[in-house]
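Example (one chain per record):
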Amino acid sequence: MTDPFLALDALPPLSWVPVEGEASVEQSTQTLTLRSAAGVDWTNDATGGEQQHQAASLAFVAPSAPFMLSADVSVIGDRTTFDAGALSIWADEDHWAKLCFENSPDGEPMVVSVVTNMYSDDVNSRLVLEASVYLRLAFLGGNAWAFHSSADGERWDFVRLFHLPVPAGTSTYVGFLSQAPCGERCDVVFSDIRFSHSLLSDIRDGS
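Predicted structure:
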């Protein structure tokens, strides 16, 4: 259900998928803060272990034409293993993806991506030395998507290109996610949120 108190000027109406969560919007700065519940994640274990889809994403219905969504992502306070703020793509429990600013088992913040088509394909990207990182997802048309990260929101580093099929008649939602698989909670701030109805023409030239 759409919540009128959780609205951002740059985005279509937002609602929770696949479960309801906790969030606030600072209207003066157009900044979104998400707080995860304890022990929540999205994962379809590639080894056949138990699935988990209890993390809440505040999201909007993805347009059918190419677009891009980005944000500067930071995590408040101490972090436990796998605590993360993420940009998310959700169709159903077997078809979803997320681009995360995640705390590794070694306690090092990293860019991590997960693409799930029945099972999750999990890939670590670069270490993040700064307090925050820009994350971006781009819909390229058809079922093609690209993930990028950036230190400044201007020059973008390629993370991943992937194909994510969506079952017929299923809406795809894109938005913002907070997870704390091993912790009590994870507070994530999404600022400088940008949404554009444009096609990313070159996924590897830094644009």
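Caption: The chain is about 0% helix and 55% strand.
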